[in-house]
């Protein structure tokens, strides 16, 4: 059997609080600080606890060159190698380790920058309920929010005295300005009013459709409403359609060149909101949006050009942000409303749409629909454009 180290692994020296009853019985607080080595690898979801010897052992093996297991045993104790193979930080060519080896090979073939790959893999959530966590956190302390956090950073970074500032003329009150002022993140939906097929099509077109496709020598690129690093447009829209006239609620993928929906499976109407809730990590205020959209980026499209690039992952995240703002404006123009959230259960969404985290990763969830008539959940509308002040 041949082995080598996985392509990307970072070791975090972590300290955590642990409760030990025996310490309490001995007259202490019962709390002790535990220091441990945690391995975060790009090819698997689990965080792996290591001992100090394993950390050193891992560092002695090459991530590139395969070595016979028996030869490796000459420099690293056999039981340490066994442990590192069992937890997948060493990959082997043995068939019983094929799944982890394939996952590792996929990371190698995708031109991820190491840091970015580990960051992406280990910041994905599974089955998190943020509202529940917030409630629990709130119930654990009776100190008010501001008291707990202290004051925030100032609203503006002022670098010179007021008198030194060169005042600029305000932008005129054009249609664009009115649209911008009308944009308010929606957290209240009118579930009694389905979205028309035209509203759906129009909003998707504005936000995601290709306006043109050009064949550069050897690479096809599209022109969208928003810019994209290298013009590569890696970000796909995966829809959970919940409440659109004439459409079965279900999962769809948007095709930006054909301006068409690709059906990926029906969802029973009475299960749809629960699915949406799972996607947005328990944020009840988004679960009834008429259309919920997972923005998932095909990393290899961008990393094809920006290989192992320090900025590539950031560029892909920015891409999703641009699309979201376009979606907000497109929805707002039609009298609809939109939202975006980064507090999402990426791993659940991958499962729902059949995505591979390192090839087509979820970066945010957006959505749109009709706004409700009552503010049950707070929206930020200080101008009173959406919710007129009484
Ligand atoms: C990257 C990003 C993540 C966000 N995540 C959440 C979220 O998890 N939950 C939520 O209710 N709103 C979320 N929002 C919406 C913001 O709360 C909202 O933009 C902010 O309150 C300002 O309101 P406005 O969009 O109406 O101007 C997010 C916005 C952005 C840009």
What are the SSEs and their pairings?
Elements: E1 2-5, E2 9-19, H1 21-25, E3 31-41, E4 48-50, H2 52-60, E5 67-68, H3 69-72, H4 78-86, E6 90-92, H5 98-109, H6 114-122, H7 130-140, H8 145-149, H9 175-182, H10 197-208, E7 212-216, E8 219-223, E9 235-241, E10 250-255, E11 260-266, H11 269-279, E12 291-298, H12 299-303, H13 312-333, E13 337-341, H14 346-353, E14 360-369
Antiparallel strand pairs: 1-5, 1-6, 2-3, 3-4, 7-8, 9-10, 9-12, 10-11, 12-14, 13-14
This protein binds flavin mononucleotide.
Task: Summarize this structure briefly.
By secondary structure, this protein is of the alpha+beta class. The protein has 14 helices and 14 strands.
Classify the oligomer: single chain
Mean pLDDT: 95
Please compute the radius of gyration using only Cα atoms: 25 Å
Give the ligands present: flavin mononucleotide
Task: Give the low-confidence spans.
Answer: none
Count the beta strands. Answer: 14
Strand order of the largest sheet: 11-10-9-12-14-13
Distance between the termini: 75 Å
Instruction: Classify the secondary structure makeup into a structural class.
Output: alpha+beta
Approximate strand percentage: 15-25%
Give the helix level as a range of percent: 25-40%
Largest sheet properties: 6 strands, antiparallel
List keywords for this structure.
390 residues, alpha+beta, 6-stranded antiparallel sheet, 3-stranded antiparallel sheet, 14 helices, 14 strands, 33% helix, globular, binds flavin mononucleotide
Describe the structure.
The protein is of the alpha+beta class and 390 residues long. 33% of the residues lie in helices and 22% in strands. The chain contains 14 helices and 14 strands. It has helices at 21-25, 52-60, 69-72, 78-86, 98-109, 114-122, 130-140, 145-149, 175-182, 197-208, 269-279, 299-303, 312-333, 346-353; strands at residues 2-5, 9-19, 31-41, 48-50, 67-68, 90-92, 212-216, 219-223, 235-241, 250-255, 260-266, 291-298, 337-341, 360-369. The strands form four sheets. Strands 11-10-9-12-14-13 form a six-stranded antiparallel β-sheet, sandwiched between helices. A three-stranded antiparallel β-sheet has the order 5-1-6. A hairpin with an 8-residue loop joins strand 9 and strand 10. Helix 2 (52-60) crosses helix 4 and helix 10 runs antiparallel to helix 13 (312-333). It is globular and about 75 Å long. The structure holds flavin mononucleotide (FMN). The site of flavin mononucleotide has 9 residues, from strand 13. Flavin mononucleotide (FMN) binds next to strand 13.
């Amino acid at each position: 059997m041949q082995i080598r180290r996985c392509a990307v692994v970072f070791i975090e020296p972590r300290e955590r609080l642990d409760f030990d009853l025996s310490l309490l019985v001995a007259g202490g607080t019962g709390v002790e600080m535990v220091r441990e080595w945690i391995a975060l690898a790009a090819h698997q979801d689990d965080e792996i606890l290591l001992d100090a010897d394993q950390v050193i052992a891992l560092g002695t093996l090459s991530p590139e060159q395969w070595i016979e297991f028996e030869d490796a045993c000459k420099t690293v104790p056999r039981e340490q190698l066994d442990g590192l193979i069992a937890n997948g930080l060493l990959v082997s060519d043995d068939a019983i380790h094929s799944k982890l080896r394939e996952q590792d090979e996929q990371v190698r073939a995708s031109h991820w920058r190491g840091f970015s790959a580990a960051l992406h893999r280990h910041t994905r959530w599974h089955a998190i309920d943020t509202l529940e966590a917030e409630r629990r956190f709130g119930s654990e302390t009776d100190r008010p929010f501001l008291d707990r956090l202290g004051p925030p950073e100032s609203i503006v970074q002022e670098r010179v005295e007021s008198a030194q500032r060169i005042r600029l003329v305000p932008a005129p009150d054009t249609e664009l300005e009115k649209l911008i002022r009308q944009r308010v993140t929606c957290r209240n939906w009118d579930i009694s009013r389905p979205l028309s097929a035209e509203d759906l099509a129009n909003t998707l077109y504005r936000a995601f459709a290709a306006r043109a496709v050009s064949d550069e020598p050897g690479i096809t690129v599209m022109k969208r409403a928003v810019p994209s690093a290298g013009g590569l447009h890696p970000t796909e829209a995966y829809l959970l359609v919940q409440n659109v006239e004439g459409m079965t609620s279900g999962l769809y993928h948007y095709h930006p060149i054909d301006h068409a929906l690709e059906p990926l499976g029906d969802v029973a109407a009475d299960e749809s909101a629960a699915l949406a809730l799972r996607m947005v990590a328990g944020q009840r205020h988004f679960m009834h949006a008429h259309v919920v959209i997972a923005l998932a980026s095909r990393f290899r499209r961008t990393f094809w050009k920006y290989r192992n690039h320090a900025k590539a992952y950031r560029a892909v995240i920015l891409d999703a942000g641009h699309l979201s703002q376009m979606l907000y404006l497109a929805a707002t123009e039609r009298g609809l409303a939109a939202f975006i959230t980064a507090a999402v259960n990426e791993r659940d969404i991958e499962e729902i749409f059949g995505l591979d985290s390192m090839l087509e990763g979820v970066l945010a969830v957006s959505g749109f629909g009709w706004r409700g008539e009552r503010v049950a959940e707070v929206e930020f509308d200080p101008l009173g454009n959406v919710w007129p002040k009484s």
